[in-house]
Amino acid sequence: MGEEYVTNVERTEGRPTIRIGKVAVTGQPCEEISPDESAVVIFGASGDLTKKKLMPALYFLFRNKLLPKGFFVLGLARTDFDDAAFRADMEKSVKKAGNFDAIAWAGFSERLFYMKVDYNDKAALAAAKEFIDRKAGEFGAKGNKVLYLATPPSAYRTIIRNIAASGLSAENDGWTRIVIEKPYGRDLESARALEETVSRNFKEEQVFRIDHYLGKDTVQNIMMFRFANSIFEPIWNRHFIDHVQLTVSESIGIEKRAGFYEEAGVLRDIFQNHMLQVLSFIAMEPPSVYESELVRTERFKVLRALRPLDRGDLEKSLMLGQYVEGEVDGKNVRGYTEEEDVAKDSVVPTFAAMKAYIDNWRWQGVPFYLRSGKRLKSRFTQITIQFRKVPHLMFQDVFEEEIGPNALIIRIQPDERIQLKFHAKNPGSRVCLRDVVMDFSYLSGYEGLSLDAYERVLMDCMTGDKMLFVRRDGMELSWEWLAPALELSDRKGPHRPDRFLYRAGSYGPIEAERFIANDGRAWVNYEK
Ligand code: NDP
Ligand code: BG6
User: What is the pTM of this model?
Assistant: First the structure.
């Protein structure tokens, strides 16, 4: 494979030198190309996302010299900070995220600024624009701007209009890109309304709709695994695959996000975005060239081929659950309706299992079982490709035990790995079988730097690569496909659907086991 290195970068803290390259080079550590000089403007800079994800990610990129010299951050929110107070607050969050280095922080924090701004105040936004223009000159940010919306989604439309009115969206001396966090609307109608506002004020090439699952290395690796190897693609279809499972299991509860979660529930929080985006990687066709728009088109085609959910027979393709008190990681935890700011009679689902079909030549008749929940036994995101059983078992008179099918397990997180499960003879004179695992650990043998999802998507936004961002048509299709499930889930009163309770710390409601067992199959859980 050809090598095309753009620049060499010294690693911090005695780690080896890494190379920044355009393409992954077999056997070599390889990271992304250096992004453009730019200002990063965070709307919602005092909020949880900024503290937990954005600031640690920007600091990590800076510390590892992955950001250009011409770079600075402006945080905007209503909280009464000055630059010093903002920097002190961000320092706490970055320390919490780990790997703090005082010297690197000193260099980074000089580039951190804050302005107290209410988004309804157009004059304040115009002042922010002047400030950005001035600092861009000082830091050499070349007029490029990333505008990152990390505010409550209900504020997006107002902010976008006011950004445009204040001139912040203009591209006079450089590019302006807007990053929009999920949730992107709460149904098809509201997503379209938001789109309308976005497209009135920004060109599509300026819009980056984030789904941070797409920034996870192991999600992108699904493409490399499938299309850079010749051995998997020939069996990646209905002739060899019995079914596919995709599980996004979380052990955390709703933390302090009751306001958001009471509105969203698990279908809007995980299924509409992360789940369907990962599904599109598993099921997509190979594009002719590894190019952003072509990859996005193939992912879009998967969503386009999802069989519409049957409104009249939804219980076959959907079941919902909610956690009650239990024990997670040895600690007693509250049930959902006991969580702070959750209505005592809330019926919002914190768990769902779904069955989906993709109506195309490759996947016709192969069920995709999707499952996600909060406060489950452990945190894992995993894809299981369950192959068909052997067509004829010549050992039927030799072994008493049932011989299960082969499975390929792609663990997205944690402990990222790919495992192929198959059967082999037990050593010894007796003829008997054992289940064995061929195991590839994603990070083993790799010494370079790895980027987490937010680091990756921030880099891509600054380089202008949209491969890992959601396209408008794909986003609308996912809302459209999910609509019958959302309508059912949102129903109140006597017609509301069953919500099966499960103990926190379990694998979910017992009905979820039945849901898949009715088809003669079983969920595959996390195994070390
Ligand atoms: P928070 O409620 O913690 O933060 C909201 C931010 O918006 C605060 O900084 C707040 O400023 C600011 N804000 C709200 N209204 C105004 C206003 N009128 N004028 C100026 N600033 C305002 O939310 P999160 O950080 O949790 O979430 C932000 C977005 O990111 C949401 O869309 C969420 O869905 C998404 N997201 C969050 C994740 C997370 O882990 N938190 C994960 C994935 C996505 P102030 O308090 O100073 O008024
Ligand atoms: C967010 C959801 O998008 O993803 C959260 O809003 C969820 O509810 C989180 O906890 C999971 O992300 P990760 O990267 O921890 O799997």
Answer: 0.90
Sequence spans of domains, the chain: 33-181, 214-517
Residue 297 falls in which region: left (phi positive, over 0), alpha (psi -120 to 50) or beta = alpha
In eight-state DSSP terms, residue 515 is: H
Distance, CA of 344 to CA of 506 (rounded, Å): 22
Distance 260 CA to ligand 2 centre (A): 13
Average pLDDT over residues 178-187: 93
Cα distance between residue 340 and residue 254, in whole Å: 9
For residue 455 and ligand 2, the question of a CB distance below 6 A is answered with no
Q: Which ligand is nearest to the CA of 47?
A: 1
Measured CA to CA, the distance from residue 148 to residue 155 in angstroms comes to 13
Three-state SS letters, 395-439: CCCCCCCCCCCCEEEEEEECCCEEEEEEEEECCCCCCCEEEEEEE
Which residues are catalytically annotated? Answer: 274
Is CATH 3.40.1180.10 what the domain over 214-517 is classified as, yes or no? Answer: no
Helices 55-63 and 453-463: crossing angle in degrees, nearest 10, is: 70
pLDDT digit string, tens, across residues 205-222: 999 999 999 999 999 999
d(CA 192, CA 85) in angstroms, rounded, equals 39
Q: What is the token pair recorded at 299?
A: 């992912």
Q: What does the pLDDT look like over 488-519, one tens digit per residue?
A: 999 988 888 889 999 999 999 999 999 999 99
Which fold is adopted by the domain 33-181? Answer: Rossmann fold (3.40.50)
Distances (CA, A) of 339 to 334, 345, 348, 490: 6, 12, 12, 20
Closest protein CA for atom 2 of ligand 2: 269
Reported in sequence order, the residue ranges of 226-379 that DSSP labels E, i.e. its strands, are 241-249, 318-324, 326-328, 331-333, 351-356, 368-373
Q: In what order do the strands lie in the sheet with 417-425?
A: 433-441, 417-425, 407-413, 380-387, 241-249, 368-373, 351-356, 318-324, 499-503
- CA 225 → CA 112, 222, 374, 391, 417, distances in Å? 39, 5, 29, 26, 12
Please answer whether residues 382 and 247 qualify as being in contact, where contact means their C-beta atoms are separated by less than 8 angstroms: yes
Round to whole Å and give the CA distance between 260 and 339: 13
Question: Which positions ≥6 away from 265 have C-beta within 8 Å?
Answer: 348, 349, 350, 489
* Structure token digits, residue 455: 């680091």
Question: Hey, whose CA ends up nearest to atom 11 of ligand 1?
Answer: 77
